[in-house]
Specification:
This protein has 157 residues and is mostly beta strands. The chain is built from 2 helices and 8 strands; from the N terminus they run αβαβββββββ.
Length: 157
């Protein structure tokens, strides 16, 4: 039941988003992102995240929005010396008042930090917009709270 609810929630985020036409993704896209893990991969078959964005999109230096992603990854490392887990693929969307920006996840990695709890991860995600402009997310994923949290930055390459 939980899996069905999570899949439905992710589907609704992408389907009900604004359908405003956008000729090209404005550049640059730079900002702070933070949020929650909605559903882990072992339950949903993909890891689902949603959170807030605050930063620059194009000429607007004070854009706010909601970012969501669903991605697949390898087994999470169990020590800080273990190889990072690869991020394989996924989809993402940044919904702002000006309209959506979306694309695909094309790779990345999840590495455990030396944190004593063994539940804090360094995350790098490579993203492409729908018109093939690259963006990178660099941040942390914290599995210490009951509902895991993430924070980091989006940076246009």
């Amino acid at each position: 039941m939980k899996r069905a609810i999570c899949v439905l929630a992710i589907g609704l985020m992408f389907v009900l988003g604004s359908n405003a036409a956008q000729a090209a993704t404005p550049t640059p896209i730079n900002g702070l992102v933070s949020g929650l893990e909605l559903c882990p991969q072992f339950i949903c078959g993909f890891a689902a995240f949603t959170g807030t964005f605050h930063g620059q999109i194009g000429n607007n230096l004070n854009t706010i929005g909601i970012v969501s992603t669903a991605l697949t990854h390898g087994d999470l490392p169990t020590s800080s010396t273990a190889d990072p887990a690869p991020i394989y693929r996924g989809i993402w969307k940044l919904q702002t008042l000006s309209g959506p920006i979306s694309g695909v996840v094309i790779g990345g990695s999840i590495a455990m930090t030396p944190d004593i709890s063994h539940k804090l991860f360094h995350v790098v995600i490579l993203l492409l917009t729908s018109d093939f402009k690259p963006i990178v997310f660099i941040g942390t994923l914290d599995h210490r709270p009951l509902i895991p949290q993430f924070e980091g930055t989006f940076t246009s390459l």
